[in-house]
Amino acid sequence: MSIKLRLLLSYVGMIIIPVIVILLLNSMFIIFGETEQEDVKIILNPMRIVGKYIAKQTEINRKLNIEILNNKEKLIDPSYLKKYDQELEAYYSGLIVREDEKIVYVSKILEDEGLLSSLPAFNEVFHRKDFYRNHGKGYILRHQNDFYLNDGSKISMFIVSDTNLARRDFNKIRNRITLIVISVLILTTFTLTFFIYKSIIRSIKNLEYAANEIKKGNLDYEIKKYLNDEIGDLSLSLEEMRLKLKNSLEVQKKYEENRKNLISNISHDLKTPIMSIKGYIEGIRDGIADTPDKMEKYINTIYEKARHMEGLIDELFLFSKLDLQKVSFDFQTIDIIEFLKYSVEDLSFELEKIEGKISLNDEKESIFVKADLQKLKRVIVNIVGNSVKYKGESPLTIDIFVKKEHEEVIVQIKDNGKGISKEDLPYIFDRFYRADQSRNTSVGGSGLGLAISKQIIEKHGGKMWAESKINIGTSIFFSLKICKGGSIDEKNIDY
Hints:
Layout: H1 3-32, H2 38-44, H3 46-70, H4 78-89, E1 93-99, E2 102-106, H5 113-117, H6 128-135, E3 139-148, E4 154-162, H7 163-215, H8 230-285, H9 292-323, E5 332-335, H10 336-352, E6 357-360, E7 368-371, H11 373-389, E8 397-405, E9 408-415, H12 449-459, E10 464-469, E11 473-481
Main location: membrane
Domain HAMP: 198-250
GO cellular component, one term: plasma membrane
């Protein structure tokens, strides 16, 4: 659940839960509305009780009227009136009995001179609202009953409610209800906030700890996803960042090792021809090459050593440009079969010098690919050159095979050389890597040939890999995408 949705639900919960609680309380009002305990009824359903109070006052008044009609003398009996007075007191009301102009009985809650002096006269018609408004002290005259005693005395019985007392109790009820609602709101808000805070803060704390670990350089600390929300997604992103950072540092470390190897390799490979050139030049300067034959031999040797140095530098420069993606490619549609035929023909002359042989097998119909001719020639030359460097005791034989596979053409260049061990095979395309660590003079090279070839093939959208067995030989494979329906003008392409 996302944080946005979680917060939205918590806000909704802060509204809905109190409403549910209030509805439950209302249900309790209905359930307890018929209870005989008046204090409970006041707390649970005050508005309903107000109506019941008025009904009860009317009922008591009717009951008094019935009993007094049978015995009017009871109106001047305090003990009799007190019984009803106590009953009315529970409903914020009381009795006042007046004989002629004299008050003969008054409830304690109604002992107010202003009230007693403002009571309506005998048989006077009164209006309840006018009485309440004119009196101004919160008394409401509910009922007035006028009787004549046997001796002709005028008796008036009043049932009066004190609204101040009712208001006081109802204010208490209102305060209680307000307190309940506020408590529910506070409890709901606190509970929802706590759980949201707990889940979010825990994840943030974990992320903070993980970030500190990464800052300290501990890239092995795994960042786990605890929640399926934005923070969980952030955790995954940070974990991916950690893995990439760890991988980049490992690559950087490897590059640093390769850089050191490069410096060592280039230093070694350049030092040898430079020392040779220096020696032969000193020989010429000191007059050792005192015959034309010796002079020609010295100069040719110097030239070959310089050409070898030029090749090393050129290879390093090309690899650097490929690595920085600063080499432009001139792609054109070519027939890979014709290209390999020309390549085999060119390389055959060089291999004959070392009694080697190269041949193209399975000469099939034309297969068209998009390629940069110069770069692809460099790949073939590098692979064949590698086979020459690591040839075995027997004469070198190189076979080239071509086959279609789905929408690709796969070229295999197989030799019968020394082979590569299983331990070295996964690394032969790495920068500056050499399977032969002895670095004897006969092998030479910078260790960049296959790395350059792989980068060139990958720029063509293909792949390069190898298979090898010790003392049997090595096969280098590379793939290129086939151009469907391709055609070329052979005259415009110089293989």
